[in-house]
Write a structure and sequence with these properties.
The complex is a heterodimer of chains A (306) and B (189).
Chain A (H helix, E strand, L loop, with lengths): L1 E4 L10 H13 L3 E4 L16 H18 L4 E4 L2 H14 L3 H12 L11 E3 H9 L1 H7 L8 E4 L22 H6 L3 E2 L13 H4 L1 H14 L5 E4 L2 H9 L1 H6 L7 E3 H8 L17 H8 L20
Parallel strand pairs in A: 1-2, 1-3, 3-4, 5-6, 5-7, 7-8
Helix pairs in contact in A: 1-12, 2-3, 2-4
Chain B lengths: L1 H7 L5 H14 L7 H5 L10 H9 L3 H6 L11 H5 L6 H15 L2 H20 L4 H12 L3 H15 L15 H11 L3
Helix pairs in contact in B: 2-7, 7-8, 8-9
The chains are: A alpha/beta (306), B mainly alpha (189).
The complex binds iron/sulfur cluster (SF4) (2 copies).
């Protein structure tokens, strides 16, 4: 299986570990990722509040290149915001002749045409529907047995377009957690908003959401994410959330956990890039500490991270 | 209704009129059931509920709308859009309100809209967002000396993880012609 890979800006900077782990894990699962040449920013959630047209034209530029040069491959985006923006152009512009025309007027400024043919997929969609948990299970060499993982989906991979899972009660990560030998932490915060970019201008509002999410992860050894913004908000503000009554929980990308379970080491999965990865947590993962029931509760004994 | 809008909002340049038209079309069919308000995770930080905001748009109460902080508190989580029984694109409406306030560009827009504007400036300059230079642009736009300080601890942690680097690895100005064309078509300065 080959995909036109759209990493998006975060995966080249603050979320490198997501990019690296995605590429390695997908390769092991027999998927070839071909990066879209000269891809540019999709506008994240910042384009729409500034320019309606650029909100469509930015993702359309990348899809236009994929359509033109990549031979009908599905476009794979690991980031939730990138995925939604890319998906949204197809859903909203195709069939709307006026909007589609204006998008192409903008793209014509660099000699491109968006035809609306490229199919856009989120990483989790590809894992669920093209790969399947069975294949993952076959590749597991270092089972995460006993590790309790809270699957966190965030908002934009299923809203407003529920393509591959139920946005009210998403479950698509669960078979993968079980395939790795882990245990699913059942909670109802998996699709709760992390505050997204409100964290920059109005941290007091976003921290409240983050604290509630972290608290609901009580009893889990880790939270698994599939979005760099979720990851950032849940990880980087744990000290502040703790002051607002939140708990500290390690947060890892699903692909990092998959890599570990498939025998890739913590260097390859760049665990040290995670902001919640204290030496104690890393030792715990290396020793599979959660496998034996510890006195006290797993995540509660995590040391404070500065 | 459009007469009332023009009275309370003048002068209305081309770009505003386009946004207003879009807004009224987006929420025109709202039946005031309140599902959107009940769904919003950020309701506690809003001064006008989302449901009431759509009413104010229907009535063209633009001065009241622009005074509100409600739309700045929207984190684009799309829960209201998913649940609205009328299928209205409410998250887009919140974004359109941010654009409208951005055109008016008062102190509230500077405080609340700086991040979006800085982000887009950086995209225009580099093609891909460079987090360090984007945050610098944000601090300059915010004009609040305390803003950088609040981010210092995180900045230091990110730096120590090697996660931020100096700008310059982007795509250059490949998007500049696209931005220019969009401005021309949208009638924005
Ligand atoms: S959910 Fe839809 S119909 Fe109900 S109040 Fe909100 S916008 Fe109106
Ligand atoms: S999209 Fe915005 S207004 Fe709608 S529920 Fe989410 S935060 Fe609230």
């Amino acid at each position: 299986m080959r995909y036109a890979y759209y990493p998006g800006c975060s995966l080249t900077e603050s979320a490198r570990e997501f990019d690296v782990s995605t590429r390695l894990v997908m390769e092991r699962l027999g998927c070839e990722l071909v990066e879209i040449p000269d891809w540019t920013c999709c506008g994240a959630s910042a384009a729409e509040p500034v320019s309606r047209l650029m909100n469509y034209a930015l993702p359309a530029r990348n899809l236009a290149i994929a359509e033109q040069d990549m031979d009908g491959m599905d476009v794979l985006a690991p980031c939730a915001a990138c995925y939604l923006n890319l998906l949204k152009v197809g859903r909203e512009a195709v069939g709307d002749r006026h909007l589609h025309g204006r998008i192409n007027e903008v793209l014509a400024a660099s000699g491109l045409v968006y035809r609306g043919k490229a199919r856009v997929r989120h990483l989790l969609d590809v894992l669920k529907n093209d790969v399947g948990a069975k294949i993952v299970e076959q590749k597991v060499t270092d089972s995460l047995k006993g590790m309790k993982i809270a699957p966190y989906y965030g908002c934009q991979i299923l809203r407003p377009y529920p393509v591959f899972d139920d946005p009210g009660k998403p479950v698509s990560m669960e078979p993968f957690i079980e395939a790795m030998g882990g245990e699913v932490h059942r909670w109802d915060m998996g699709n709760r908003c992390c505050g997204a970019s409100l964290m920059v201008g109005h941290p007091e509002v976003a921290i409240r959401s983050v604290a509630e999410i972290l608290n609901a992860a009580r009893g889990a050894d880790a939270i698994a994410t599939v979005c760099p913004l979720c990851q950032m908000n849940l990880e980087a503000y744990q000290a502040k959330a703790a002051r607002a009554g939140g708990r500290r929980v390690p947060v890892l990308y699903l692909t990092q956990l998959m890599g570990l379970a498939m025998g890739l080491d913590d260097k390859a999965m760049r665990l040290s890039d995670n902001l919640t990865m204290t030496p104690a947590v890393r030792r715990g993962i290396a020793a599979r500490a959660w496998a034996e029931p510890a006195p006290g509760q797993g995540a509660e004994t995590v040391e404070a991270s500065g | 209704m459009s007469g009332a809008v023009r009275e309370t909002w003048s002068p209305a340049p081309e770009s505003d009129r386009m946004i207003l038209k879009e807004l009224r079309e987006t929420v025109g069919a709202c039946m005031q059931c309140g599902t959107c308000t009940a769904s919003c995770p950020n309701w506690h930080a809003m001064d006008v509920t989302p449901r009431a905001m759509w009413r104010m748009i229907q009535f063209g109460m633009l001065d009241r709308i622009l005074e509100s902080r409600t739309f700045w508190m929207c984190s684009s989580c799309y829960l209201c859009t998913l649940r609205c029984p009328r299928g209205l694109k409410l998250t887009s409406a919140m974004a359109a309100l941010k654009r409208l306030a951005g055109v008016a560009n008062g102190p509230a827009a500077r405080r609340n809209g700086s991040f979006y504007a800085a982000f887009m400036d950086d995209v225009e300059a580099h093609g891909r967002v460079q987090e360090t230079s984007m945050m610098q642009r944000y601090f300059i736009r915010r004009r609040d000396p305390a803003a950088p300080l609040a981010f210092l601890p995180l900045g230091v942690r990110m730096l120590s993880k090697g996660k931020v680097h100096l700008p310059g690895r982007g795509m250059g100005g490949v998007l500049k012609p696209l931005f220019a064309k969009a401005r021309e078509l949208e009638g924005t300065p």
